[in-house]
Amino acid sequence: MAKARALEGRVAVVTGGASGIGAALGRELARRGADVVLADRQLSLAEAVAREACAAGGRVRAAELDVRDAAAVKALVDETLRRTGRLDFFFGNAGISVGGEMDGYSAADWDDVFDVNLRGVTNGILAAYPVMVRQGHGHLVHTGSIAGLVATPAQGSYTASKHAVVGLSKALRIEAARHGVRVSALCPGAVRTSILSGGRFGRLNVPGLRDEDMVAIIGVLRPMAPERFARQAIDGVLANQAIIVVPRWWRLFWYLERLSPSLSLGLWRLSLAELRRQVAKAVASRREAG
Length: 290
Ligand SMILES: NC(=O)c1ccc[n+]([C@@H]2O[C@H](COP(=O)([O-])OP(=O)(O)OC[C@H]3O[C@@H](n4cnc5c(N)ncnc54)[C@H](O)[C@@H]3O)[C@@H](O)[C@H]2O)c1
Hints:
alpha/beta; 7 strands; Rossmann fold; single chain; binds nicotinamide-adenine-dinucleotide; 7-stranded parallel β-sheet
């Protein structure tokens, strides 16, 4: 019960809070007593999550936000501050993915992902970090990915953006310590959300492959339920861990990367070969059926 109300009186903003990991983080923060703002491009979905969380006894509100718009991110932070007088957590979590190999990429396949996954996070820093510095406390939590710790093929722009998010979070953690501000990078493995097939604003980019085919292919990795993910992730945040990998077994990939980068590359080369095989099989069976 103490854990359940440990965040009483604290204020948290979660970008990408309408679905998946963001919605689950918002619900878990509220369950632990925090006042939560779910900020997302999908306003009606965020409102539905907020209503449900309020009905369960939480203090949660929805706000429309496009994280690519720096002025809008700042306006949301300022408005939250006016309303509550403090900002304890800013979760830079909104993200999209473009699947497919880089020989088939267009300029937009790079830009769209960098604009949301990387610019979205830096816009959050521009808005929330000065507030936290002034307060002398606060915690920036950036959703990276296991793809920010190892090279995951067939999603080049996503991998690049997440390496950038993890890198900047580590650098900022070092800088921010003297202001009393904490910084963590949240690195999910596979979690059962819409991003497994690109998300509402992303895409798969593999001709002939349907979203449900990709979800089935990733299914072998047994994606974690977002609620379970959020409980473990918030525990990691409250323990002020620098890099939080959930589900925990995905740390094996990170350890291997550090132990033997060449072995790690070999493993991911094998995983790409298997992915290509699975994708070709799914596309062929779609063609036969259609
Ligand atoms: N699900 C996984 O397996 C997994 C693994 C590693 C990392 N992640 C990361 O977790 C984060 C959350 O993703 P998710 O898995 O919950 O997927 P999701 O698609 O369920 O949620 C992403 C949310 O971000 C919002 N969003 C997208 N673009 C936005 C923008 N420009 N402005 C504001 N909101 C925007 C979407 O509307 C959506 O609500 C992402 O950063 C993602 O890269 C997820």
